[in-house]
Write a structure and sequence with these properties.
By secondary structure, the protein is α/β, with parallel strands linked by helices. The chain is built from ten helices and six strands, in the order ααααβααβαβαβαββα. It is about 45% helix and about 10% strand. The two termini are about 55 Å apart.
């Protein structure tokens, strides 16, 4: 009974090895450093156990052979060992176990944000077209609407990043409307973002000057010209655009929305 259990275990180890190469390539993209360490430890433990259980052929206890009728020489080459015959039901069960064990690790939003921002600690972000539904300063004179789908990601970024929001406005009334809309959306309640870090300017170049003075790790913008101008000075940029354009530089990433960049849609 013990020998049978050992043979079953060794057969499982062999099948794990057959599937491991394919599975690990998909798994690797979803693991953080802690998960990689855990998998490496598990692999070591499995290898160690396998080496302990493996017994040299010379030391295996020989079973007495009972005399039997001689096999036909014409058919002896066609007879396969029972150990080499693959059992489809067993193969399916083994793969189910492996698939379940190697399910991709599901990261939390906090882990995703940290990973995507490469542990950057200061972020600047324009409002129009990214945080707000409106796309031009003229629209802010009429109404200001915060995009509800971006709130969760934005609040998560403010938990561990120094965040500055900025926008071009045409008058003081627009500034007040923007601040009020952000306040009503609950952006200032988490404590990570305060009203003094919402900056306003009268031109697009003014926003570019803000960014260069603040020297963030990341700048998020929807204006391709601003992104291009800043690519030489800012470590990383995220260009929010509904149209997929060629990357302006190796340090510029593109997404249709802030939440899409962090995998929340």
């Amino acid at each position: 009974m013990a020998d049978s259990s050992k043979e079953d275990f060794l057969r499982l180890i062999k099948r794990v090895g057959a599937f491991l190469t394919v599975k690990i390539s998909n798994l690797w993209r979803h693991l953080d450093s802690r998960s990689v360490g855990a998998i490496a430890g598990l692999a070591f433990a499995v290898l160690f156990t396998w080496r302990l259980l493996r017994t040299p052929r010379g030391q295996q206890r020989r079973q007495p052979k009972r005399p039997g009728p001689p096999a036909s020489t014409s058919n002896s080459g066609n007879i396969a060992s029972s150990d080499d015959v693959s059992n489809p039901a067993e193969d399916s069960k083994t793969q189910d176990v492996i698939d379940e064990f190697f399910q991709p690790v599901k990261l939390t939003l906090s882990e995703i944000v940290r990973q995507r921002l490469s542990e950057g600690r200061k972020v600047t972000c324009r409002l129009l077209g990214v945080i707000l539904e409106e796309n031009g300063p003229e629209e802010l004179q009429k109404q200001v609407t915060v995009r509800s789908s971006v709130l969760e990601v934005l609040l998560e970024i403010t938990k561990f990043c120094d965040v500055y929001l900025m926008e071009q406005v045409l008058d003081d009334e627009s500034e007040k409307k923007v601040i009020l809309a952000l306040e009503e959306a609950g952006i200032f309640t988490s404590g990570g973002l305060i009203k003094d870090k919402v900056l306003f300017c009268s031109t697009e170049n003014g926003r570019s000057s803000f960014v260069r003075q603040l020297e963030p790790d990341w700048h998020i913008d929807s204006n391709p010209e601003i992104v291009h101008q800043l690519s030489r000075f800012i470590r990383y940029q995220l260009h929010i655009s509904s149209v997929k354009n060629e990357r302006a530089a190796s340090n510029v990433f593109t997404a249709t929305s802030l939440e899409q960049f962090f995998g929340c849609v």
